[in-house]
Amino acid sequence: MKKIVDVSLPIGPVHPVFKEPCRIKCVTNGEYVTSAELELGYVKKGIERIMVGRPWQEVMFLAERVCGICSVIHNYVCIEGMERINDIPVPDRAEYLRVVLNELDRIQSHLLANYSYCYTIEHETLAMYLLNLRETAMDALELITGARVTCSYIIPGGVRFDLTPEKENTLRGMLDHIDSELTRFVHMFKGGSMIALRSKDVGMFTREEAIESHSVGPTARASNLDNDCRLFHPIYKKLEFKSILLDDGDNYSRIMLRFLEIFQSTKLIRSCLAQMEPGIIRGGGIIGEGTSKWSGEAPRGELTYEISTDEFGRVKKISIRTPSIMNIEACVHYMLKGVDSAADVTSTYISSDPCIACNER
Amino acid sequence: MKAVQDLKNAVRSRSIHVCYVNVGSCNGCDIEILACLAPRYDIEQYGIYVHNNPREADILLITGGFSPQWEDKLKMVWDKIPEPKAAIAIGNCPISGCVFNREGTYLDPPVSKHIPISAEVPGCPPRPTEILAAVLSLAPVIFKDYERKDE
Fold first, then answer.
1. What angle do helix axes A92-120 and B28-35 make, rounded to 10 degrees?
2. A17, A18, A50, A60: best mutation site toward chain B, by most B Cβ within 10 Å?
């Protein structure tokens, strides 16, 4: 008689699809996953402990190195939080330039996430197309800031470098390139029947589960839960930002939502470039004693910094809440439950766009 | 046996399998290694393949400044790699700890305390071309005439 036994299926910490180390322990019945558990702690660095007692000039660089993929938003939220302590004014042009940089960072992060997903479901052609398109976004980042990953572009009271008209023209060309190429790739993704077989109705995540697990970002928005922090940001309000929502809550809609957000980001950058007027980009300011709490929308969801400083602007206490911690837990406890095969475990996990380095800091 | 050795050298120079391990980095170096896969840099045209599987790897790329969880595990990964093998430290973290080597940190750099490191690529993070150049310049040193090294 054929006998089915419950087995424990460990994945990681070193695994071909994982960019970062973590361990997923699945309890499976045959290949059907009945429950899963996550083990973290492989890249704990203790950044918050290092930050304590240091001035913003050092904390800024440490904040950026919380996560390499979404380094701009960490810089952005940390600095905006510090500006709130002493009400440091920011010139209009600098505000728009910050949004341009943030959206470029979102484009490259979403492209990387979708590349990982396509690579995991073994659609290498589309994956390589997306990774190549990401290089265009990285070039745009390098054009503005001079660095590919850790830019340190945003500082209290403004930004470091201005965007000259020649660079602006080049940037517009790059955005057109991203839009035209991505339209083609999205068409490939929509039309691929094998992609649909691997993605549709896999890793279901309903709206109720999203509310229950406090998931944020694209993972929640693909389940029709709107919690985009950009809706409450003053500069995004000026740009008339509206978040994109999808209903299905499966792997397909999570990936599709990221594609749609890339188009939205290029549109936001274009309207920034249109609204931007010449002027100063750096006002300066001194950070004194106080406490502030500020949130921003990272590529993966809501990111919160809570900072308190002493009279010389040194950090007394800092706590960071990153988006991935909710999303990974939601993925492991809700999406992975009821997944049909071991191959879908990894693809479902990647579809929630986990970032372990953010998580553990 | 020179003919056999020449054949081995020729094959090995176009078949370098790479595994990367993150032992406490911020992801910045990892995504630069991933960027090497992109058609722009096209790591496979040089005969380098990224599999991320220690058992078929020749070169181990290490990013990050060694968090305590890896104390035994990195040694295990290193032991699984068949000879001839080499490890490259990517970024400042495995070399010195970079910004994380301060008071209050959990990291324990450098990584060369734990496994032998053959080459180092500094930068925070290094560019994909630098990583590519490091792998390409290290590979012949390690793999060429490997069987005749003892003579």
1. 60
2. A50
Query: What pLDDT sits at residue A4?
Result: 62
Residues 97-136 (B) with a CB less than 8 A from some CB of A: 98-100, 102-107, 124-125, 127
- B51/A131 Cβ within 8 A: no
- CB distance from B39 to chain A under 8 Å? yes
The C-alpha angle with vertex A14 and arms to A12 and A16, in degrees rounded to 5, equals 95
Nearest CA to CA, how far is B127 from chain A (Å)?
8
What chain B holds in terms of domains, given with CATH numbers, is 15-144 (3.40.50.12280)
A46-360 CATH, one of 1.10.150.240, 1.10.645.10, 1.20.1600.10, 1.10.10.10:
1.10.645.10
Q: What is the 3-state secondary structure (H, E, C) of B103-123?
A: CCCCCCCCHHHCCCCCEEECC
Coil, strand or helix at A98? helix
Residue ranges covered by each domain of chain A: 46-360
State percent of chain B over pLDDT 90.
3
Mean pLDDT confidence for A324-353? 85
Contact predicate A23/B30, CB 8 Å: no
Q: Find chain A residues with C-beta within 8 A of B127's C-beta.
A: 148
> Which residue from A58, A142, A157 is spatially nearest to A101, judged by alpha carbons?
A142
CB of B61 within 8 Å of a chain A CB? The answer is no
Task: Grade residue A5 by pLDDT with cuts at 50, 70 and 90.
Answer: low
From B44's Cα to the closest Cα of chain A, the distance in A is 12
